[in-house]
Structure formats: structure tokens, C-alpha cells
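Obj.: predict assembly geometry.
Materials: sequence records (below).
Method: joint structure prediction, all chains together.
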Amino acid sequence: MAEIVLEGVTKRYPDGSLAVRDVDLEIADGEFVILVGPSGCGKSTTLNMIAGLEDITEGTLRIGGQVVNDLAPKERDVAMVFQSYALYPHMSVRENMGFPLRLAKVDKATIDRKVEEAARVLDLVEFLDRKPANLSGGQRQRVAMGRAIVRDPKAFLMDEPLSNLDAKLRVQMRTQISRIQRRLGTTTVYVTHDQTEAMTLGDRVVVMRQGLVQQVGTPAELYDMPRNLFVAGFIGSPAMNFVQASLTPDTLRTPLGDLPLDDRMRRELERRDAPREVIVGLRPEAFEDASLARDTGGPAVTVTVDVLESLGSDAYVHFSAEGGPVSTAELEELASDSGLADTGAGGNQQIVARLDAATRAREGQPIELRVDLGKAHVFDPSNGTNLTHPES
Amino acid sequence: MAAAGRSHATRWGVVNVVVVLYALFPVWWIVALSFKTPSTLTDGSYIPTDWTWENYKGIFQTSEFTRALINSIGIALIATVIAVILGTMAAYAVARLRFPGKQLLIGMSLLIAMFPPISLVSPLFNIERSIGIFDTWPGLIIPYMTFSLPLAIYTLSAFFREIPWDLEKAAKVDGATPAQAFRLVIVPLAAPGVFTTAILVFIFCWNDFLFAISLTSTESARTVPAAIAFFTGSSQFQQPTGSIAAAAVVITVPIIIFVLLFQRRIVAGLTSGAVKG
Amino acid sequence: MSTMAEPAKDEAKDQKALSAGARQERRLGWLLCAPAVIVMLAVTAYPICYAVYLSLQRYDLRFPDRAEFIGLSNYGAVLTSPFWWDAFWVTLFLTVVSVTVELVLGMGLALVMHRTLFARGTVRTAVLIPYGIVTVVAAFSWQYAWTPELGYLAGLLPSGEAPLTEQWPALWLIILAEVWKTTPFMALLLLAGLALVPEETLRAAMVDGATPWQRFTKVMLPLMKPAILVALLFRTLDAFRIFDNIYVLTAGAHGTGSLSILGYDNLFTALNLGIGSAISVLIFICVGIIAFTFVKLFGAAAPGAEVKR
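Observations (raw C-alpha cells):
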């Protein structure tokens, strides 16, 4: 059990490229922290540096108060679960799980006891004498987990441990990992590129992009108060909608229509001396079917429904806004990472609204939507900063 | 459906039998010859009418053959061991490390794989005589291991590339020293590839004829393929057919055993290096 | 991005620290390769240079003291001699015909091994035997098979015929022996190439209405091209240095001698080291030309030329 502290940790490769830049992070004892971001953002490199598998170029790393920059992985007492599971194919499940203890010269009886115990927790008892090749993907994943927990290490490091599982199994294992972590109370650093995993698993989430930490916070903080365009676009599914807007003293002129500013926004924007051209971000649930709205306050816009997706509990309404898609470096990176850039949806900006299932929206028909400005964000297009964030 | 399936199966059955016959017929023929008595040797039948072990007894009584057999085994084994050790080192570097000159090494071993041995026979003949290893074991071991090195490097680097090197990392995090990671994780995984390569190299050395007749002049280092070619009948008027057949069968046996036991591995070894490149 | 702003001093320090690791890796790489490289150079590069040197000398093994430098005369003698050209055409003929036949048969064999539903292991084992068997042994088996009075195959011919004593029949028998021995190797290389053809692509072609022949020529062959070229390259170079089979079957008599046989005879029968070395060097050049042609003309990806990571 230990806290992990990163101070100005930087990784530079021999060719001069910076994989991780000046990361400061304090992970409390027993905390479950997620590193999330698109591929190449430096999250796995950061994890490897904590594990001791990659050298730290600059900065300090402390585990349990001890500086471990120059310690070999074996001296750091951390356990790691790999994306490929990295099970030893020539060893049985029992031997795989007992391997770290065997290396630590633990006596045979203790090894057996601990392995059996972990196998019970993970429901692996009947597979103990099989080789990894004879296990299913989910079972292999559990063996990899088992190999980590038998050691009772200072921390668990997990590198996309669920990304090789199919969707249904991934959800089940997610819950199980969460349960095990809470029961053992071991500090955990978990890397993923899946924002759903990040939101559901972590006590705190660290969003990274191009080697830089974008924001650290609880899932709710990241969702409700993203510091910048990148975090706003990365967290949430369906993603936040972005439209271009011009700022007048008391209105946002958007392709959807004019949206009057409320007091909170006006205050923040004034304080930060916002530019005239901005980007407005609206989450799908910031829209509401005007005919079903409980209160009549707030601005309303009328749009034509392109596609309606009924999910039973909710209905997603897709429509397009005049004017080209909003394009910034951050959003392009997000689009190419999620593959959206390849869908061929050019032309107008596509918007998604999440409405009550009772909506009477019909494809091809106009509908009036009420916009909850309390959930709107205004971003500076030049650097992506959220101008309505209370602290930034 | 069922009828069609059966005729399909029959067709494949016929094809398979043809393939097996094609592969085995010359082998069977020489086995049959080796069990024939001198009087029935020329009867041309596929199955000896008169079985005899005489030919085998005959060759094992001559030092010409027994010495050659010892030479063959000793030379092939030593050349294999050295080639596999050197090949493993180079292949590990090729598969795992970044260093300038790697392409040069690969190009060079490719060049040697294509090298016509006859081009080396005359210079080696002269060099070996002048340094005194002509007609000795080292005189054959050195060219054998050289010409099998490219084979060893290709096959082994193909195997090494297949090893999931994540495991090395996992072992380190699990608390292994680099030496332990190598001994407990990498060696057990690499062993099958090394073993397969050793079989291929051994077959290669065992097979050679040109060097064996060019770089030896007496029984002291002559291997079986070369010795067979110099067999003479026990009398001037007798053809050495029976002895040659028996000797041929004896040196074919190890190959058959390898093929039977390690068929799958040999196929994997032969093809891995060549196609994945 | 922000690297520009960073002090240059740090940059230099890191460069040094990091290249220390790279240097170590490089040193280890060289160290591990060194023994193999030294052996290969010592046993091939040096002798081939020595062969060039020898080929420029009049050097008769019976009179080693009379060796003298005579420039390119040996090459002139070889290239104007009918023996060289006869052997050259024989070798070329054997190479082209046997490799062609092997390719066709090998492809058939590969398809059988790939498609066969049962006894796959048996077929593969059987096919490996010709590959593994000592060439000399196989050659003797063929020789006895075709020897009148002795062999089962000679018995099929009109009596009195001895095919191994006439040029053309003998050449075809050499090809037969060569093809029998090496087709399996070709087949295995092609089989590995076949494994690279995705089953789904073939199904797609089937759905698109391709006949079996079209599927073979339009889908399989193009996808297998790299494997085919590598197999052809290897086999061509291998066939060009044919020695064992000819030595046992005809000893190069009756106009069946290949270049390798010619070189061997000049060295060990005529004991002429100068001429023999000139032949060695010329064969080496021929092989070089073939390899170069393959790589340039057909773009054969030289196996192992690019290490996949």
C-alpha cells in the first residue's frame, strides 16, 4: 500500500521526440486513477515509467515516499497487468500465478495457499492446472489479474487490460476489477483509451494528449466542467456537440439561432476577455423537446430532424446546423482517433440531441428544442480553453 | 450430399496415395535392394524373394563404412552445435536489437545461402592443405557450419520474432532479474525453435557430398555419402550394389526418424524463414 | 512543440544519456553477430578472393613449383573451350526444365497438402522424406532403377536399352531425380505461401462468380507471388549448382556434365588448379547474375532483406 507521486516526469526518446511532458500527479494510497487519452498520448509510457520498464528522462517518481527513478522493476514492488496478458505459455495457470512469489523465494506452502485464495476470488479454481493456451480470453484476463493480486504489491498497474475482450465480457470484468480493487484497497493506475471505462472505474481520471496532462478530476468534474475543448470532446458518449458562434454583449449567435447569455456566462466571459468568434459546446442532454419541457424558461430553436434513433429509454435526434463543421487541431485529433474522420460525413455540422423517449419528433419533420444554457460551454478557438470554466 | 462427400473423399484418398507412393517409391526400392542376396539382386522385383542381412553384416565389418559412419555423425553433430550457437547469437541480435550493419549481415548470409560450393572447393582445397586440416574433421566442419549458418540465422530469427517479448517485461515486473527473465521465460520459449533449427542444420550437413569428396582423401574424415561413392565390390567382378544399398539405408534411417518424430516442426522451420522473410 | 523553447544545454545532456543506451545495444548487437560474420567471411570471402588469385596463375598440382602469373589466359582458355560451353548449356537446360517442372508439381502438391481433408500428417511426412534423404542415396536408387538387368524401371524399357548411357535419356533421368528430390521443398515453400491467401478472399471471389481456375490465377497466384518468387530464386540457384545427382548417375559422361562437374574434374582429375579456379570464379559470376536478375527483374523480395518488426 503506498501513494505514488510524479513530479515533472518527462520522457524523451533518442530521436528527440517527447512522449511525456512534465507530468505532475499525486495518487493517494488506495486510490484508483485512470490515465486516458487517444493512442500516442503518452499514457502507456507513463505507466511503463511507473513500472520501471522505461527510464525516466527528467523528474522524480516516488512510490511510498521512496524515490524509485533508478530502481529495477523487481525492486519497486508493483504488479502489472498487460494488454496482451503476457501469460507465460509454458507454465500452467497455477505456475503463472505463483511465479512472482517463486521469484521472491516465498515457501511452497504459502505460494499454494495464496494462489488457491486468488483463484477462488477470481473463479479460476478448476483451471489451475491448465495451460494458458487452453483458456478463453476472459479466463486469461483473470489469470493475469490473479498473477497481480497474489503478490499483495504496493500498487497495481494495468495497461488496457480489457481491450482484448468482447463488449459484453468487458462490462462484466470492469465491474469485477472495481470490486477487487475496493476490497483490497490497493493503489491502482489504469490505462485505457476508452472513455466509458475511465468514467465508470476511476476515483479520478487523468486525461492526456500529446504527452501533456489536460485535466485531472473526478469523472463528474471532467464531464460537467471540462477545462478545454479536448477534454470536452473526449469525455462523454455521444460526444459533446460543437458549433461556431459570434459573441455579442448578451447573445451567442449560432447557426442554430441566437442564444441569450445568462448571468453566469456573461460574468465568466467578461472576466476572461473572450474573443468575438467562439465555439459553443452543448452536450446531447442540453436539448429538450419543447413540447415536453416542464419549465418554459430558456431559449428555443427549431430544427429539422434528419435521423431519429429510439433506444427505449431515450431518443437520439440527429440534425444539421448551417455552416461548415467546427475544426480545430484538438477536434481533428479526436475525430481521427475515434475513426469519425473516416465516416465521410462532411458538409454541415451534425448535432445530436438526447430527448425524452416520449418525444413526438419524426424524421423529416421540424421540431422545437429548448436549450439549457446552464449546460453550455464556450471555448476559445485559438487555444481550446473553456471560457466558462469557473477556475481556469 | 453424402454421396458427393464420399466421392470427394475418395478422390482425395487417391491423390494422397499417389503422393505418398511418389515420395516413398525410390526409398523402398533401395531398401528392397539392400535385403536381396547377390543371386536375386538382379531379379528386379520390388520385394526381395530371399531376405538377407548379409549386406548389412558386410558393411559393418569394413572399417571403410564404420569409420565413415563415425565421421558422418561426429562431423555433422559438431558442425550443428557450433552453427546453432553462432546462429542463435546472431539471430537474437537480428530479431531483438537495433544496430547499424544489421542489413549487411542479412545480405551477407543471403549471399552465402546462394553461394555455389564448387566455387569454394578449389581455394579451400589449397588453403586446407597448406594449413594442414585437409582430410581432417575440422576440414569438413568449418565449411559445413559456414554454409549452414544462413539457414540457422533465418530460421532462428523467424522463431525469435514470434516470441512475445512482453513476457520479458512481465517477468521483470513480477520480480525477475534480467538473468532470471532470460532463463525462466525466454529460454523455454526459444528452445523449440533452436531444436528445430538444429534438426535442419543436421540434415544439411548429413547430406553434403561435394565437400566430402573434395576435402578428404582417406578414411580418416570421409563421410558416408562420399564413402559410398568409393565402395568397391568384395571381389573385382562383383558390383558393390548390395553394400551401397545397405549403407544408403543406414544413413537414411536417422532422417526418417527425424521426419517421423518432428514432421510438424521441420515444416514450420523450413517455411518460417523463407516466407515471412 | 515546446522543445524549441527548452535550453540547449539540457538537450545535449539527454542526447548523451540516451545514446549511451543505444550505444550499448549497438555494441551488444555487433558482439553477438561478430562470430558468425567472422566465420562466414573467413570461409567464403577470403577463399573466393584466393580463387580469383589462383585463377590468374598457371598452376598444375603435379608441378606446384612451376606456378606463374599468366593474367587472364585461364579465362580465355575456359571461355573458348567447347567443354565449358557444353557444360554451360547442359546446366542451363537442367536448371530451366527442372525448376519449371518443380514449380508446377510443387504447386499441385502444395494444393493437395493445403486442401486434403484427412491424412494430412501422413502426406506431409511422406513428402518430407525426399527432402531429408541424402541426395547420393536417392541418386543411387535411381541409378539402380535404370540400370539394365537390375532395375525395375529399366525393365519397362525395350531390352538392351541403357538410358543412362545416352545423352538425352540421361539428361531427362537426371531431371527426374532432381525433381523427385526437391519438389517437396518447393511444395512446402508454396504451402506457406498458400497459407497467406485468406479463405475469405477466396469465398468472396466465389461469390463474385469466379471459376476455380479464375480463383487460382486471379486471386491465389497474385497473392502468393512473393512466396513463389522466393521459392523460384532459391531453387534456381540450387539447381544451377547441381552436382550430386549427376556425379552418381552418369559421372558427367555422355555429355551430361554440369558446370560443377566440370570444375570438379578439372581440379581432381586434371589436377589443374588454375583452370579449375577460373571455372569456380565463372560459376560464381553466373550465380551472381541469376540472383541479380531475379531481384531486379522480378522484384523478388530477397528473403530477410527487410526485417519485419
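Conclusions so far: The first helix of chain A runs from residue 43 to 51.
To do: check interface contacts against the pulldown list.
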